Every structure is written in structure tokens, then in C-alpha cells.
Amino acid sequence: MNPKDKITIEEVKKIAQLAHINVDDMEAEKYAKQIGDILAYVEKLKEVDTEGYEFKSQTDLINVFREDIPEPSLEQKEVVKNRQKKSKGGSLVIKSVL
Amino acid sequence: MKRLYELTVKEALELLESKEITARELVQSCLDRIEEMEPTIHAFLLIIKEEALKAADQIDMKRTKGEPLGKLAGIPYSLKDVYSTKGYTTTAGSKMLEGYIAPYNATVVEKLAKEDAILIGKTNCDPFGFGSSTENSAYGVTRNPLDTDRVPGGSSGGSGAAVAYGGGLFSIGEDTGGSIRCPAAFCGIVGLKPTYGRVSRYGSIAYASSYDTVGPMTKDIYDNALILSVIAGKDTRDATTSAEKVKPYHQALDLSLKGRKVGVVKEYLGDGVDEEVKKAINQAIEVYKSLGCEIVEVSLPYTEYAIAAYYVIGISEASSNLARMDGIRFGHEANVDDWKDKIIKTRGEGFGPEEKRRVMVGTYALSTGYADKYYHKAQQVRAILKDDILKAFKKVDILLTPTMPVLPPKIGENTDDPLKMWLMDAFTVTINPVGVPALALPAGNTKDGLSVGMQLIGPHFKEDTLYNFAYLYEKSIKDTLN
Amino acid sequence: MSDSYEIVIGLEVHVQSRTKSKMFCSCDANYFNTPPNTHVCPVCFGLPGALPVPNKRAVELCIKTALALNCSINQETKFDRKNYFYPDLPKGFQISQYDQPIGYSGYTNIETKEGVKRIGVTRVHQEEDTGKSIHNNGETLLDFNKSGVPLIEIVSEPDFRSKEEVTAYCKRLRQIVRYLGVSNADMERGEMRFELNMSLRKKGDQELPKYKVEVKNIASISVLEKVIEHELKRQYEILENGQTPKQETRGLIDMTGETVSQRSKENEADYRYFPEPDIPLIKLSQEMIDEIKNTIPELPQEKKDRYIKEYGIEKDTAEAIINDVDTFLEFESITANVNSQLVSEVSKWFVGDYFSLVNSNKRSKEFKSEWLTELVDMVIQKKITRSNAKEILEESFDTGEYIGNIIKTKGLEMVSDTSVLETVVNRIFTSNLKAVEDARRNPNAAMFLVGQAMRELKGQADAQTVKNMIFDKLKQ
Fold it and tell me: What are the Asn/Gln amidotransferase domain coordinates in residue numbering (chain C) (predicted)?
């Protein structure tokens, strides 16, 4: 890989922001190197002439649908079970998004 | 005589049916074995004792009364901790899901319960399947029962180790790029990555949706085929499951192989493949010759690009699949008020280094300006790989390769170099993007008592062919040993 | 300011389709006014391991909508993931459609002051709704009952040049989806929502402006109108200062239509679309498309045109009748199998007296709206007078008494028997000799005789007939 293609710490932070992952400076430095190595490795894909090739689906199945028939949902207490302390009247509560 | 935990599923079923043993004795034997081995091996993240014994008693009672029982009545098994189990924790080996309790069961859990199999525990794994050694687990490493200084493989390393030491008679693993086959090879057991769409993924925590497969990990071929016949089939909750008929896979294992063609992939026996591994594969070739097979050299020239394509697509999908881990509804939650900071911090704290790396690179590979270079290009290469393999199956019935190019590494040997770890998976990761089935089974042993795995690859939905070839190999090896 | 600048608007309209179950799971889609998180399952709650399976009916309704908007249909279509984070988006992505929407390149016509205008429909695609965030005292309550409800997105070309055109289009779309049975499009219930893309350009410019302001989550047509007014003023002022408004997504502050610039992060959305690997491709044969096409009823504009052409119904009257499904269904049922003159006459009564009764009076359960047609017919046949007919209608509407009975009881039937009329006219002539003489000299004086005859007939006769009779007799 070309040295100018190296991933910078700033770029790592930008990716981390897009991925919504908190990354501190030390981690960013480590990931810059590792992600750089990984990208350098996958760079070899460009050597393949893929003209005319298209991958559409892992399965040959088409038109797999459900009929429009309602079925019972989970019980409310099951839905909020993993956030019991953060639920109010069956709703989940977070600090205002506004 | 074998101890009960050493039995195969087939042997145990015979003894249960003839009432020579009870389900309680069998379950108790496995639980005792777990208690004995866990301090060293650490294969389990959750051990289910009371409920398992209670279930065993009920089955014993039904049997006494002559009531109808399922096909796997009384057989204790374990699940990789990526399968949702109602009422029990499901962590996927990640801190992100510490304490998470799913309110529903995965389809594979339901199917096994319907046949009266007994769940005795959930096994350790690399987080979300991200790894080939189980060293990335947030809950500590699992050791290889064949050599405790070595890794059991991964990501279903806990399942591999548990089956190998007798912590349950079989396990359900999950294979996205070798996660069943690698630990099967390193732990000396049998593991199947079925055809994509053969077994429902519903309830299996997704790594890469277009690669993920659910498969059995067992002590031998017969058991593997038997379990597949129970868990396979169309599921209305998984739109990608096939309606292709589920065969009684365990009932057609010893058809003659005379005149059948075994393809040997030349790229898979080149540099970087351990001599002991080559030796075992060459021995396997000889066995197939002796069974009347014709050996055909096959080339899969795009293999060197397969790993790159595999990772780019896999982590792209993973970056999206793991987006639901936001701390809002379940799992780890950072102690921050602002919702946006909460999501970012939750993911920063809950994901380990391997998760962060893969999610970030996957995010990058899908992002504006890079998607064409990475994600879309990789998908095109994938189309070529599929062509490559399907062409090979016009010439041969199955392909024979090593499962892993190396013997199990020592614990800690590769952890600092993620890329080196990735390259170790070269022979397994190439299969998942194409969706064909691949079966890992022991080819032979090294002089140090480690196992070498071989991989049989077949065309889509030809699991029966794989089992047929594998069963006769297993039989002839046993005959030689005896 | 409207002299120098021209509005350029494109719209994205979201319509919840009326299915029984959700888009990708079997939860009951009828979530309105249900306790929070009771219509929720692992799929629509985004639990690990859950998988989506598309609702066939929802896809059919989307195809139907696309066809009704004159779209071409992608015979190979698929779902894609649109990735972004938000607390009410449980999976961290929305299942939507990216490069192969179900419908594309369509249009619909709207009526403006200047005449009929064609609005281009760029695409019609299927997606899923998010959960609901309720903001309350610094807290946000999350309810996922709405999560996964099928949503059809209709994207227009930037073809609108005025607020009125936007309003006409939104109302037309609402009519269309209601006609199709795709949605109730009840805005109070959030079943129809809008996203505005708006900019201004110098009048006469042909190119699209270099910027575009996006405003999301607009819950009603009236708020949409206010946002347009507000943005028109705001953007105009910036342009007049010689600057270009920033290309951005602006948030709606409240129902006044005022918008505010959002945190810059919101403007850096990178949705990282890729094909949804959990859902196989969808291939639509021409046969399947035609089958759906055959279920499309006559649409509002066609219906209106037909009313005008076939029955001679007035434009505004026709518009009032086609406005909603129940109204035109009632109208068509009471005018089935009658001649076009009567249909046209009934239409006036229907949107006039009948509408006001419906709006202000209590309708008796026994009242049948087809009596209106009978009544109007009698007016045309001159069996009753127009003013009596109004009273009869009102009484019948309130009491449920059959109109024929009211006419009989009150003796309101007009005298149309010529021999009866002749007897009365003869009697008037004999008892008003002086007036007859005057009338023979001065035809204007004849109206006195007509008035006398009508009084004797208690008004239950056609005045014109009586008048003609008297004039004929005067000439003798």
C-alpha cells in the first residue's frame, strides 16, 4: 500500500463517529495501524477484472412473503424486561432527544 | 466400557431406548464432566443444571409410562452462546450483551426441544463470531482439551471443546467463515457448515447475514447427519430458508464411492500449509483411492482474493447487524444522559477491540466514496468465486482440502496481529460467500496427539454426499486403528 | 417578493398502508391508542437474531399505489438497508428501497387556477415506520408499537411553483390512496406525513437552484403550508442580502411552521445503503402487475371528468362529491340507473341542501338517501314545488318519514290535471271581468289573474302552466 493511503488518526475518528463508537486517542492510534493493514490487504481486490460480474443474492429464492395475518406480540413486560429500571408505564425512558 | 459422557448420540439413544441407562444418569454424567473440566477448559458461559435434570426426569418418566418421545429424547447438548434462549442469558461472547435475556427462542432451540433434546449449557465464543480462536471472548479464553496450551479454534471454540471433552453429546455451532469447522478441526471433532438456507437462522445473533449458517458439532459423522436431519428445513421466520426436502441424512451413509470423483484443490496444499497437515491430507487422498474414488486436481485460482472479498462483505454486513447494539433496549448501557453520547459510549465500552475494528472497517467499506471500491467490488469478486466453485463441481463430486492450514496455535500467539489471524482462515472463509456446504472432520492425528482436520466441500444442498464420503473415510480410519 | 423569485419545491410523502399486520413481522399493525410496547415482537423491537419476512399485502398495496400514480414498475425489485442511529430506530437501520424502488417515473395531475398541471412522481417505494418518541419534561418515552408499520414513500419531482400546487397535490394524493384502499391517510393519526425540499430561484431561471433546504416530519397539510410560507420569507431575505441559503436539513420547531438549523451532525448523514441480505429478491411478472392493475378503481380526476362530461354536473359540485370515498359512493348509489338530467339535478341538491342537513341536523335512522332522488325527480316532473321539496326533505331527514307520506298528509302535491286548472281559470275569469278587460289591453295586467289563480290553487301548481293557460284564454 502506498504510504499516502495510510489511514490517519483523524480518519479513524471520523469512521468511529459514523459507526457511533467512542474511540480514545490511544485506541485511534492502534486502529489506524491495524485498519491501514487491513485496507492494504483488501486493496488487492482491485487486481481482479470483474467486468460483467454481478452478485445479486446468496439464495435462489424469490418472492418470499408472509400473508397479512396478525399474530400475538410479546407481552409488554417481556419487551421491557432488559430495561426494567428504565421503563415507565410500559414505555422505555431516555433523556430527552430534543 | 465408555463412561456415559463419552458416548455418541447414537450409542446413548440405543442405551436409553433399551432402558440400560436413564436420561438423568446421562445428563448427570455430562454435568459432572463439565464440573471436572471447566476450571481448566472454560468452554461454558452458562451451565444449566437444575432445569436439565428436571427435563431428564420428565423424559425418564415418559419413557417408563411408554409415552411418545422425540427423536433425541434425553440427549444433553450445548449451544453456542449466539442462540437466543428464552429466560437464559445470551451474550454472543461480548460484553455488549452481558446479562441480556432474550424473550424468545431461536428456531434451532425450538426444534431440538421438540425432539426432547436437553440443553445443558451455552458455550463460549469469539464475540459475535469475530475470531478463530475464542481468545476475543469478553469472558476469557477457552482452552483446547487436546492440549490446554493451545486455542480450541473459533469462533465456536466453546462448542468444539465441550463436544471434545464430553460436556454434552453434541453442540450447535454457528459458521460465518469457518466458526464451526475451525474448532472442529482443532478439537478433533466433526462440524458441518450446511448450505446457506438449509437451517433457519432465526434467533441466531447475526454476524454476516448472507454467510451465517447454523450447524451441528458432533463426535462422529452419524451423529452429525442425525442432528442435521432434525434442525434443517424451511422456517417461515427466516425468509432465506429453502423448501428443499430434508433428507434422513443419517440413513444413507455407506453408499459405495466407487468411481466417484474427489477434487483436490492445488492452491490449498501450497506454501504456508503445515507439513503435518499436508501429510494427513495425502493420507486421506490415499484412503479415497482405496475406496475406489478417482482423484482429480482442481484449481480455484481466485482463492487469494477470496479472503479479501469475504472480509469486506462480511464486516460490511456486520457493521449494520451490530447497529442495534445501542444500549437503548437491552444489553450494555453507558451511564450517560444525552442519547447520542449514550449510544456512542455504550458501543465504545461494550465492544471489544475486534468488534470495534470490524464494525469500523465495515462502516468504512459501505460509506460514500468507498462503497464502490470495497463493498461493491467485493460482491463482484464473490460472483467470480461462485463461478469458480460451481465450475469445479461440474468435474468432481466433492472437493477435499485441509480445514485449517496449521495446527492450533498456542494461546496468545496471534492475538496482536489480526491480519495473520484472518489469513489462517483461508480455506474456510472462501466457502461462505458462495453458500455451499462444507464438512470438517478429523483426517488423522499428529505425533503429539493433536488432530488434523480435513474439509469436504459439496454443491448446494448436497450434505448427503458429504456425509457419505465422510462416513466411509471415518470408518476406514477406525478400521486401521483397530 | 413573489415578483422576483419563484418557489421550487419537491415533496416526499409518507403514507402508512392499511394492512392487518406489520411490514416484516406478524404484530398487529393497528397500533393507534394501544398501551405502549404491546404490539412488539423480537423483529420490530430489533432484538438480536430476529429476521424480517415481508408482508405480501403491503407490497401489493405499494405496487397498486405506484400504478395509480402512473409509474413504471421495476420487475426486479429488492429491499435495502438504510443505516443510521436514532433511539426510535430499533435495528440501527431502516429497511427501505434504494436503487430498485417498486415504482418509478410516474406522474399525477392536479388542478390549478391556470388549469391542469402534471406533477412528476420520481419514485414510489416500500419501507417501514420507526417507533414513536414522546417528549415529556426533559424525558423521551419510547414506544415501539409503530415500529415496523408499512410505509409507502412517494417522492415527487421538484415541480411545484406555489404553495397552492403543493396543497392540491397533497389533497389529490390523499384522495388517491383512499380510493385505492391503501390508507386512510388520516393525518391526525400520523398516517400521512410530509418532507419538504424547497429553494427559490430568480423568475425565468430554468436551472434548479444550487441549494436546497429540507424539512422533515411535517404532520399535516396546514403545517406544510406554514412551513412553505416561513421558508419563503426566510430564504427570500437571505437571497436579497446577496447570499445563498445554506443547503441543510432544518428542524420544525412547532406547528407554527418555523424552522431551525439542526446540529451539523444531522447533515452529515451517510446512510450506507446496501441490499438487505435477509430478504430474497422480488420478481414481479407482468401477470402479477396486471392483476393488481385490475383492482384499481376509477380515480378522483377521472371520476370528476366523467361526472362533468357524462352528466353535465358542475365543476365545483363534482369536486365536492369526489372529495371522499363515502360521499361519492353514496352519490353513485342514489343515482344509479337514473337519467343524466336527474343525476345532474340530484348533484346540486346533494352538495347543497342535503350536505347542509348532514352537517347540521340529526339524521333519522329511517331516512334513506335515495328518497332525495325521488324528491328531485318530482320537482323536475313538476309534481311538487322546489320550495316545498326543501321542507319535505328536511322533515323526512329529521323524522325518517317517507317523503311520499309527507306530501300526501300535507297535500303538497301540485295540481297538474288540466281540467282542474281550466275550471279554476274559468272561475277567475268570470269573477274578475274588469281585470280581464284590462288584461286584454295591457298584458302586464294579466299577472293579477295569474296571482289570483295561484292563490286559489294554494300554490300547488306550476305557475308557468297557469300563466300560459291564462294568456291563451285572453287571446280567445
Answer: 329-474
Question: Is it true that the peptide bond before B155 is cis, omega within 30 degrees of 0?
Answer: yes
Amino acid symbol at A66:
R
CA distance B338 to chain A (A): 6
Q: What is the mean pLDDT of residues C448-473?
A: 84
Determine contact: A45 vs chain C, CB below 8 A: no
Please answer yes or no on whether A45 and B374 come within 8 Å at the CB atom.
yes
pLDDT in tens, C166-224: 999 999 999 999 999 999 999 999 999 999 999 999 998 999 999 999 999 999 999 99
Q: How many CB atoms are closer than 10 A to CB A26?
A: 8
Fold of B1-482: Amidase signature (AS) enzymes (3.90.1300)
How close, in Å, is residue B329 to chain A by CA atoms? 6
Q: What residue spans define the domains of chain A?
A: 3-47
Separation of alpha carbons B375 and B383, rounded Å: 13
What is the distance in angstroms between the Cα of A45 and the nearest Cα belonging to chain C?
19
B373 at C interface, C-beta within 8 A: no
Q: What share of chain B is helix, strand, coil (3-state, %, to 5)?
A: 45, 15, 40
C-alpha span between B219 and B6 (Å, rounded): 9
Express each pLDDT in B250-272 by its tens digit.
999 999 999 999 999 988 988 88
Instruction: Please tell me the distance from the alpha carbon of residue B21 to that of residue B185, in angstroms, as a whole number.
Output: 31
Cβ A21–B418 below 8 Å, yes or no?
A: no
Q: Note the pLDDT of residue C424.
A: 87
Report the distance separating Cα C363 and Cα B278, nearest Å: 92
Domain boundaries along the sequence of chain B: 1-482
Q: What is the second-level CATH architecture of the domain A3-47?
A: Orthogonal Bundle (1.10)
> How much is the ipTM here?
0.97
Listed residue (B38, B72, B42, B32) closest to B55, CA to CA: B72
Q: Please give the Cα distance from C380 to C472 (Å, whole number).
A: 24
Cell of B446: 499428529
Rounded mean pLDDT of chain C? Answer: 92
pLDDT tens digit string along B160-179? 999 999 999 999 999 999 99
| pLDDT digits 0-9 by tens, C389-415 | 999 999 999 999 999 899 888 877 777
List CB contacts of B154: < 8 A, sequence separation 6 or more: B125, B126, B131, B132, B133, B134, B135, B136, B179, B182, B183
Select from A1, A10, A22, A43 the residue whose CB has the most chain B CBs within 10 Å, as the one to mutate to test that interface.
Answer: A22
Phi, psi at residue B140, to the nearest 5°? 95, 160
Contact yes or no for C212/C100 (Cβ under 8 A): no
Contact B239 C54 (CB under 8 A): yes
Q: Which residue of A has its CA nearest to C288?
A: A63
